[in-house]
Amino acid sequence: MASAVMNMITAALDWVTVIFDAPLARAVVFGVHIDGHLVVEVLLVAVILFQLTRKSYKPPKKPLTEKEIDDLCEEWVPEPLHPPITEEMKAEPPILESAAGPHTVIDGKEVVNFASANYLGLLGNEKIADSCISSLEKYGVGSCGPRGFYGTIDVHLDCETRIAKFMGTPDSILYSYGISTIFSVIPAFCKKGDIIVVDEGVHWGVQNGLYLSRSTVVYFKHNDMASLESTLEKLTRENKRAEKIRRYIVVEAIYQNSGQIAPLNEIVRLKEKYRFRVILDESHSFGVLGNSGRGLAEYYGVPIEKIDIITAGMGNALATDGGFCTGSVRVVDHQRLSSSGYVFSASLPPYLASAAISAVNYLEDNPSVLTQLRSNIDLLWKGLSDIPGLAIASHPLSPIVYLKLKKSTGSSKSDLELLNVITDRVLKEDSVFIVSTKRSVLDKCRLPVGIRLFVSAGHSETDIHKVCDSLRRVAALVLV
Amino acid sequence: MVRLPYLTALTTLFSYGLLFAFGQLRDFFRKIIDWFKSSSKDLKGYAPICLGLEDFYTRRLYLRIQDCFSRPIASAPDAWIDVVERYSNDNNKTLHRTSNTTKCLNLGSYNYLGFAAADEYCTPHVIDSLKKYSCSTCSVRVDGGTTDLHTELEELVARFVGKPAAITFGMGYVTNSAIIPVLIGKGGLIISDSLNHNSIVNGARGSGAAVRVFQHNNPSHLEDVLREQIAEGQPRTHRPWKKIIVIVEGIYSMEGELCQLPEIIAVCKKYKVYTYLDEAHSIGAVGKTGRGVCELLGVDPADVDIMMGTFTKSFGSCGGYIAASKEIIQYLKYTCPAYLYATSMSPPAVQQVISAIKVILGEDGSNRGAQKLARIRENSNFFRSELQKMGFEVLGDSDSPVMPIMLYNPAKIPAFSRECLRQNVAVVTVAFPATPLLLARARICISAAHSREDLIKGLEVISKVGDLAGIKYFPVEPPKHETQSHKKLE
After folding, report:
1. Residue of B111, B143, B231 with shortest CB distance to A72
2. Which residues are B425's β-sheet partners?
3. Nearest to B58 among A208, A337, A346 (CB)
4. Hey, what domains does chain B have and what are their CATH numbers?
5. Which ipTM did the prediction report?
6. B273: which chain A residues are within 8 Å (Cβ-Cβ)?
7. pLDDT greater than 50 at residue B488
8. In sequence order, what DSSP letters do the residues of A34-95 get, joined into one string?
9. Domain count, chain A
10. Which intervals hold domain Aminotransferase class I/classII large (chain A) (predicted)?
C-alpha cells in the first residue's frame, strides 16, 4: 500500500520534472530566460485577473414566507376613498323647476338665466319639440345597443348626412355624448410616439384624450401664435426622422376656459409650413360663428378641407345632446372601428338625433338668429364695460362672456370663493342666474377663474340690462 | 369556461392563416399599384393617418364581412324590428341603404325588460316632461343643468339599489372613464378582472394608478395577486400602496356569466381593499325584484363600496349612475369632471328611467314590473336549455339573459349571420377584437318582450342554420318522451 502511494508520488514528480524540462520551459523569449516557475507565475496572474472580472457575490434573494406576507397584510392601512369633506364640498347647485330657457324657475321664483349655453334660443322651439315627440312615439327613448349591434337607427344616418351637408365635408360620425367625442377621437388617431402640440387652456375632455393617447404632448401659451410658431419650429428642427411620426395641433375654436377665439388663418398657415394636422374642437362655435353658423372656418374664410378633423358637442347651440366629428372619408371611416367611445358605447337616443336634424334645418332657414345673438353680445359688452372690480377677458364675438377679477387675491381658491359670493347674491337678491367657473381636482388648466355668462339669441334687451345693473351693484358691494 | 377542442382550434387557425396570407398578397399588389399612381402633392411630408399594419385587420378581414355589422334599423329596437336592406357595388367596401325593410325577430338588442319601444305608462310621462323641460338643458350639472327631475332620479336610484346616495351622468361609458380617476390616482393600485369592459380599462388607464389583472372570475387567484401586491408594495420604491380597488362586473357581456360576488367580497374584506361593481347588464334584469346581482347572490349592498350601472339596457334610456355612501357622492359632485364639464342628462331620458323604475317596483299601481321580471327569467332559462338540448355550445349561467353561442371559425361568422337574416332572425355575431381571436361567437340577448312563439320560431331558425353551419359541437340530447316510452315498455 505505502509503496503504491510512493510509486504514484514518484510518477507525479517525474511528470513535473518533464514539464519543467520541456522545450518551452527552456525557451528564451525576447532575451528573457523562461524558467519553469515563470509558467506558474503566469498562471497565477491569469487566475487573479479572471477573479477580478467576475461579478461580486450576492447572497440569493429569499422569498417572503407566508407568515411574513400575512403580517404585512395585517399592518397595511389603506387611505380612505375620499378626502375629508369640507364645507365647500357640501354646496349644492340650484335646482331648476322648468326648461333652461332664457327665463327659468328656481325655488318658485322666475329668474333670468345666463347659465345655459342655449346660444340660438332653440330650447322650447315648437318645430324641434314636435319632431322629438314623433320620434319618441316611433322609436321610444333609448336605442338599446351600440352602433355595431342594431343600435344604428335610420335617424342616426340621416343626422350624419345632414351635418356633413351643412358643414360641406364628405362625411361625419355621430357620438352619443358631447364630452366623449373629443376624448375618443384623439386616441383613435394619436398613438405612442406621435407629437401633439396643444394650447394650455383646453378643457378637461381634451386633456383626458391626450393622456389616453400616450403621445408626446407639448403645450404652448394660451392663444399665443408666436409661442405656437416657436414650439413648432423647435419640434421640427429636433426631429429629423419625422417621416413616420404623425404630428397634430389641437385647439378649440372658442375656449370655454377663457372665451378667446383661436386665430384659424394663422394656425392653418403654420400647419402648412411645418406639415402638422389640425384637430379643432368647435363645441361652442358651431352654429355661432360665421355668416351662416358654419363655425370658425367660415368666419375666417378658410376652406373647410384644410382642417383635418373637426369635432363638436351638440349640447350648446343645437340644444340637444351628443356630439359629432367630421372630416374626410378616411378620417371618419377609421373612427367607426377604432374610436372607443363609438364602438363600445350605446348609440345616441333617436329623439336627440331628430332634434339635431330639426335644429340644423332651422339654422339654415333662419340665419337672422345669428345677427340677433351678435347684437345681444354687443349690448352685453357695452353694459359690462364699467363693472367695478371685474374686467371682460373674452373675445368680442364669443357668446361666452368671461369676467375676470381685476385684482386677484393671489390664490384661485379664494378668488373662486369671492366670485361665488357675488353669484349667490346676484341670484338671491336680483333673480339673475349666473355662474362662476368651477374646476375639478383633475383639471390641469391654470388659467384664471372667473364668471361666465352664456348669451342667447332668446334674451331680450331688458334681460341684458337687468344682468348688467345687478352685477354692477353687487360687485360694488362685494369687491370694493 | 370555454373548452376548445383541438380539431376546431387547428381548423380555425388554418382559416385565419389563409385569410392573413391572402390579405398580405392583396396588400403587396396594392403597394405596386400605388407606386405607379403618384400620390397627391398635398400629402407630401405628412405621415399617413394609418400605418400599414395598423388597419390590416380592418381592410382585409373585417371589410369582407362588413354587412354583418352595423345593420341599420327603421323601427324601435323592440322584439320585432325592421332591418334596412343594404347593397354593395364594390364587394362590400361601401354599403348603400335602400328604402326596403325586412321584419325580423330581434335577438340582438339590449332590451331586457322590454322598455325599448313606446310603453303605455312611460311614454306619456316622457312626452310631458319633454314639453315642460325640452330635450336638453344645454348646461353642465353644476351650473344650470340640475332640474328637479335629476334630483328625483338620484333619490330613486339610491333607493332602488339599496345605497344611501347616488349620482347620475348622461352616458355609461363616461361614468367609468371619469369616476375612476377621481377615486384613485398615482400611488394606488387597480386590480381588474381580465375580461372587463373597455370603459373600465380606459378609466383605469386614465387614472394614473398601477393596473394588475386577475384571472376571470377566480377569487383564489385574486387572493394570490392581492397578497403578492400588498407584500411587495409599489414597484421599485416598495412603498406601501395608498389604496387598492378591485373592479368586477355583474354580468360579463361576452360570456353571459355572473360574477362570483360573495367570494370576491369576502376576499376583499379580509385584505381591506375597496370594491367597485359595474352592473351595466345586470341591474334590472336579474334578481327577484330586479335589483341586480347583489340580490340574486345574496350580497348586502353595504358590503360593496361603489356600485355603478347604466340605464341603457334594462330601462330603455341612456346614461349611467354611481351609488355609494353620502360622503363619496358629495366628493364626486365636488370634483368629478363628468359632473363639472359634461352636459347634464336629457330630461326626457331622466323621466323614462324614473317611470321604468316605478314600473319595476310596482309603484305605478300595476304588477307589470313583476310580470316582466318573471317573464325574462322564464324566457332566458327556456331558451338556454333548448339550445343546449340541440347540441350548441352555449356559455353563461342560468338566469342570465345573455347567451353566447360559440362559432370559432371565421367563415361561420358571416354564414350564421347572413343565413339567419335571410330567415328573418336578426342575431349579433362578435369576433376579434372584442373576443379572443379563436373564440368568435354569436350572442343572443333575450327580452321580456319576446313571447313564447317568438322564442320557438327563433329556436327553429337557429337550429336549421346551426345544422347548415356545423356549429352543433355537442351531442344532441334525445328528447325526454323517447326515454320514458322505453321505460314503459320494460
Report:
1. B231
2. B105
3. A337
4. 6-34+45-106+371-469 (3.90.1150.10), 122-361 (3.40.640.10)
5. 0.90
6. 78
7. no
8. P-HHHHHHHHHHHHHHHHHHSPPP-PPPPPPPHHHHHHHHHH--PPPSSPPP-GGGG--PPP
9. 2
10. 110-471
